Amino acid sequence: MDDLNDDIARWKWNVTHTVEFKVETTWSRVNNLARLYFQIAEAAFLDLKNEEQNPIPVPGFDEDPADHHRQEKRVIAAAIKATVFSAMACEAGIYDLAAIQLGDKYATKVLDRLDVIGKWLVVPRLICGKSLDPDGPAINGLRSLVPARNKLVHPKSLPGFTDPSDEKQLQAVIDEGNEQMSQIISAAAPAVQAVILLSLELNRVMGTPTGALPFFERDVYSIDERPVGCPMNDLILQCRQIDAKAARKDVQKKHGT
């Protein structure tokens, strides 16, 4: 019994294990489309902003509404492309990251069982031992992007009016339709923003440029390459500020302040 007590006394009840993670900094891939998808989303976002900055007024009763209606369609089309292709960039980017760092077989057979939010949380942790903040702006942006994208790829039309003489019903149909279109338009900028925030936080957490998504850091991406007043510049600057604030918050968490 004394020998057992001596053994117990020598045991280490708290043991810290150090795990070494290997992060690939060079890679070769074919047909990785995340950057192209984002370029399409970015172009659509700029088209949307251009239309919004140059609105065609609602025509009067005796004026031709054709130009106004054509612009409305261009606005909706641009918003749809910005949202859907932003979501596609997120899907493609996280697969590429997993395939580069963990291997194609693992990325396909194991990680494909997760939804896109799960992938963005799990994959970085598997690679470097650290995860994106599940309550941070990047993941929250992705959480908003997914249902916005789903509404577009699984669209639900609305019932029209059945009695033209019923003004109340007619107005309700118009209001509901306008609200649906308004939601589509308002989702475009946050969709593009979500991609930028994911890229910034991913590279920060990994400690190296991953290449899974386009780069937006100051030392890689210069906003001076774009015209002054370009909406994309404003969005990138805003995202850098958001990510910097999130990074400071992470540091405070680690130090318990």
Mean pLDDT: 89
Task: Quickly give the structural class.
Answer: mainly alpha
Terminal CA distance reads: 47 Å
Low-confidence stretches: none
Helix content: 55-70%
Tally of strands: 0
The secondary-structure element order is: HHHHHHHHH
Task: List its traits.
mainly alpha; 257 residues; 0% strand
Structure notes:
With 257 residues, this protein is mostly helical. The protein has one domain (30-56, 65-155, 165-254). It contains 9 helices and no strands. Helix 2 packs antiparallel against helix 3 (66-102), helix 3 (66-102) runs parallel beside helix 8 and helix 5 (116-128) runs antiparallel to helix 6 (137-153). The longest helix is centred in the N-terminal third of the chain and has 37 residues, at 66-102. The two termini are 47 Å apart. The mean pLDDT is 89.
Topology of this protein?
Layout: H1 2-10, H2 34-53, H3 66-102, H4 104-109, H5 116-128, H6 137-153, H7 167-186, H8 188-206, H9 231-254
